[in-house]
Amino acid sequence: AKRSTTVYLTNRRIDMVPPVLSSNICSLRGEEERFAVSTVWEMNPDTAEVVSVEFFKSVIKSKSAMMYSDAQQRIDDTKDQTSLTKSLRQLNALVGMLKPHWTTACKQSVVPVAMYAAVHTERYIVLGCVNLS
């Protein structure tokens, strides 16, 4: 393959992989099990330094398929006390703890950047990402 990512245009997208993979087998859908390779990073809570990394085969089951705006709306809705929303808020709090160490963390791992992007799309765009939605 000559592309390493899916390309999003104004009226269509050009998938990196065939549609049966991008829209089904490799797509994270709510409440459906998917085979995956998971990564667990253990980080120092004071410095955000990556202490250890572990990779392993796994089966994952997303609770929901959401757009970034949907996740942010759940985080902001103080009346929403579902377990999914509480999990999103915990990730948001983790981002807050890592933020003072952002430069160090970004040099060591892409995880804080990905979490930050998932929770704070607007700020991610300001940091240089192009909004393709």
Give a verbal description of the structure.
It is a single chain. It contains 6 helices and 4 strands; from the N terminus they run ββαββααααα. A two-stranded antiparallel ribbon has the order 1-2. A hairpin with a 4-residue loop joins β1 and β2. α2 crosses α3 and α3 crosses α5. It is globular, with a radius of gyration of 16 Å. The two termini are 24 Å apart. The C terminus is likely disordered.
Write a concise keyword list for the protein shown above.
two-stranded antiparallel sheet, alpha+beta, 133 residues
The backbone outline, from C-alpha atoms, is globular
- What is the CA-atom radius of gyration, in angstroms? 16 Å
Oligomeric nature of the chains:
single chain
> Taking all residues together, what is the mean pLDDT?
76
Largest β-sheet summary: 2 strands, antiparallel
How much strand? 15-25%
DSSP, total strands: 4
Order of helices and strands: EEHEEHHHHH
Strand line-up in the sheet with most strands: 1-2
Structural class: alpha+beta
Please sum up the structure shown.
The chain has 6 helices and 4 strands, in the order E-E-H-E-E-H-H-H-H-H. The protein has about 130 residues and is an alpha+beta fold.
